[in-house]
Amino acid sequence: MSVKRTGQLGFVDLALSRRGGVPALERVSSLVDWVGVERTLAGLREEGPGRPGYRPLLLFKALLLQAWYGLSDAELEFRLGDSLAFGRFVGLSLEDEVPDHTTLCRFRNRLVGARLLEKLFDELDRQLEAAGVMLKQGTMLDATLIETQAAAKPPMGELSKVDPDARLTSRKGKPGTSFGYKAHVGVDQGSGLIRAVITTPANVNDTVPADDLIRGDEKAVWADSAYHTHSRQAALKARGIKPRLARRPNKHHPELPPRLKRYNKLIARRRAAVETTFATWKRRMGLIAIRYVGLTKAAAQVRLVAMAFNLRRWAALSAA
Predict the structure, then answer these.
(1) I need a labelling partner for 43 at 20 to 30 A (CA). Which of 37, 113, 212, 226 fits?
(2) Residue 262 is part of which domain span?
(3) What angle do CA 275, 229, 185 make, to 5 degrees?
(4) What is the rounded distance in angstroms from the CA atom of residue 305 to the CA atom of residue 291?
(5) pLDDT tens digits, residue range 70-82?
């Protein structure tokens, strides 16, 4: 299938480009090696006969904007046509036809089906390392619940018929329950960049995917008591990584000694920065719910948010 030629700026575009720009988007455009991203997308082709399709890179940039601003497919379509900054970021001129919401949805599903989001995350991670913004002083582990809006909360003990992958779980320290998924992250200490992200059903304990969030090249791992096990502590030490894992009481030692209480406070202060990751996701990027049905698509939504977040951080770090 032929591909639409887009992004050829006319005189009007160039005149308007001086107004209403979004500096962060402009910085991201200049920081990212889009050739490398496009190379990762090279295997993705439009399917079926008809009008020329959009370049995969244009559609991927649109999905990054969607994750960055917490938009639905229909809202993204509108903003691509309404916002000069959006159009310039993805490569659309004023004369170009805007991809509609069904085109955007189909493209996201093809990305998921081809398992390209993982490769795209790795490509951007490689670029962040090459830029020297990934500090590797330590990895901070944490997780957050994200409820689904694709299915109603089922009764306790029952699965949803609409989304059987989603799970019901109680919220630590809060009344009530949450129904949906859990995002687990490993965040680079100092830079705040996300180095690893895993999505699970909401009832999966934080400690289960923890080892897969550890990259192995960090100097330390910081985490609360939910992540502490003797085997994990020993394994980290064997790899030359400092295990900064908060301790918790047990049946043999129901009260922590003062030394470990002080130790836990130190860890809590150091790892508190990871909370800003989820605050940004939910309050500034609009990740208030999972929009799609099933673990695979939920994980894709979270990974796109993680990539958009990293680009946001990269732009902020470059401007500092």
Answers:
(1) 212
(2) 135-319
(3) 30
(4) 13
(5) 999 999 999 999 9
